[in-house]
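As described in the Methods, two query proteins were run sequentially through the folding procedure within a single session, without resetting any intermediate state between them. The first query and its resulting structure tokens are shown here.
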Amino acid sequence: VQLQASGGGLVQSGGSLRLSCKAPRMITSTYWQYTLGWYRQAPGMQRELVADVTADRTAKYSDSVVGRFTISRDNSRKTVTLQMNSLKPEDSGVYYCQAKGPREIWGQGTLVTVSS
């Protein structure tokens, strides 16, 4: 497995979760070149971009999560993190991490459920 996602779970509306995605098998010297992102997919819906961060650490967010979610990367640890605050039921879904660069790599999903 190239990307290992973790941190999902069940949380009440207004709560927080922190997702992490590690890339233990990727070479550190190339990891930094990748744009790292988090996508989510709700039941019956298409997968959508939540946030991503480029090699120069420019972050981009979906309008629905601006001000609530923060994406960050630690190249030395080959990890991208998504801090999710003020969660809403509509944030529920399976969250996938992605590395996009010389290749496009997907991690397995981690389920986030926000109860109202």
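Immediately afterward, the second query was submitted; its sequence and tokens are:
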Amino acid sequence: QVQLVESGGGLVQAGGSLRLSCATSGRIFGLNAMGWFRQAPGKQRELVATITDVGFTNYADSVKGRFTISKNNPWNTITLNMNNLKPEDTGVYYCNAQRAAPVPRDYWGQGTQVTVSS
């Protein structure tokens, strides 16, 4: 099992910045990727950013140039730096970890609220 605990959410004005962190514990050896997803009220959960075990990153078009995902080695913590926040960034942000073998598996944190006021 892998445990994920998010921190760093809060209320910020449009144009401001926040940093989210996700601390991992448990069987983190062999994780292939980690990332952040978000869910706004009444909407489906969507990908925000991911990072692989070798450092490749992927971002949603809506956050490119504003958000940066990073990790330390091996997988103790991942961070999402969010700049120039917009009201449409509001939602619950979830940390995710993925393992491909021996059985594909997704792990999720409990989520942290991010609210951007206009």
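Residues 58 and 64 are 9 Å apart (CA to CA). We note this only descriptively and draw no conclusion about the first query from it.
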